[in-house]
Amino acid sequence: MGPTETGSGSSAVAELAEASRSGDRRATARLLSLVERGGPQADEVASATHFHVGGAHVVGVTGAPGSGKSTITNSLTTLLAEAGRRPAVLAVDPSSPLTGGAILGDRVRMNGAAEAGVFIRSMATRGHAGGLALAVPGAVRVLDAAGFDPVIIETVGVGQVEVDVTDAADTTVVVVAPGWGDAVQANKAGLLEVADLFVVNKADRPGADDARRDLDLMLDLSTITGRVGGERPSVTMTTATEGDGIAELAEAVVGHLGRLSDGEELAQRRERRRLAEVRAHLGHLLEGAGEEVLATEASKATNPAESPMMVARRLAAGLLG
Amino acid sequence: MVGTGLPIRVVLAKLGLDGHDRGLKVVARMLRDAGMEVVYLGLRQTTGSILNAVEQEDADVVGISMHNAGHLTLGPRIVSALADAGLDVPVVIGGIVPDVDLAELEAAGVAAVLGPGAPVDEVVSTVRAVAGHDGSD
Prior knowledge:
The complex is a heterodimer of chains A (about 325) and B (about 140). With about 325 residues, chain A is of the alpha/beta class. Chain A is built from twelve helices and eight strands. Chain A has three domains: about 1-50, no CATH class; about 55-265, Rossmann fold (3-Layer(aba) Sandwich); about 270-320, no CATH class. Chain A has a seven-stranded parallel β-sheet, with helices on both faces. In chain A, about 45% of the residues are buried. Residues about 1-5 of chain A have low confidence and may be disordered. With about 140 residues, chain B is an alpha/beta fold. Chain B contains five helices and five strands; from the N terminus they run E-H-E-H-E-H-E-H-E-H. In chain B, helix 2 (about 45-55) packs across helix 3 (about 70-85).
């Protein structure tokens, strides 16, 4: 059943939103499909959910492929669900740039969370770079309005520069595994700078203590990274498959929200989140418009004296009026 | 960007105690390469866990892989469980299914059966046909 069958008009969307708020998970799932699809119906969903967001704690979990993001998310949300919270997960995996297809495999590691009643939705990036899907902020709103809290965003497996998640989440958790890199890697610019909390997963493996030491050293040298209320980000050691360290991680995550809420930081981050969403959609729209302009203009851009940069600037001037 | 319309979403799973998941992985690749989004559940799923995933993922199709001769028991069970839950989502069974069982599965509401050696085109066109839309807008 596709989202096309939800009927037409905003009343259908409003009904879905109402059902979703009263706990109808199928309605929530349908709203997520509409958000993913984009277009006018996604706008209706945004309108229908916007005023019902309850300020769920949005937590980003990011890190390299295979570092254990899904397993950590599974253990963490299972623990939180058992403690009476209502967690939801958005698990993002990459779409093929060639066919648009995707294998969304995060649920493989989330059987425990699914059994504990955690709402899990897999999302493909559908052409969006930066480690997330364009629809993530809208999907977070749907889950928030449906009463889920926290909402965990699990990014695609990332490298060094995919930092989009920090604009989408209140709290960003970076997961590394033993052998991920050395002290020089730890001090490179990028992902590690923007984390709020660190996890060294697979802590039962050789090299885990080295990884921790490198991260600690990096964090001790930084006056910027993750400093909220003057506190240095914590490094939690976990063996997620065994559940070891997950309670400490849950404590760190909840504690971080507390520190954000103590000052202006939470409000500032959420305002930044809104701007980042506008920027992402603007980029997407310009890209779409740009493709059309390119198709018609490219053939005219044959003047060899005009560099690619100059062509781009001329086209941008045309687009932006 | 290719395929930005409305990709067909397929939940793929092994049901019960059946450890042979190579076929399922191959099918996952076939469907991915045909532009579909495959929600891969993997091994040892139950009727309940599949239902749960179909609901949360807003799936268009469920694909179950069976190599342990459980298809006559578990196939109809998942079809009726989906129907009981009000989920109008077609079930495709892949794997080892003797020809003599096909009629019974069809009667039970299984949308299609794909046997060993089914070529890529057949797998893809079958899933597209039962999904009710071709993945474009």
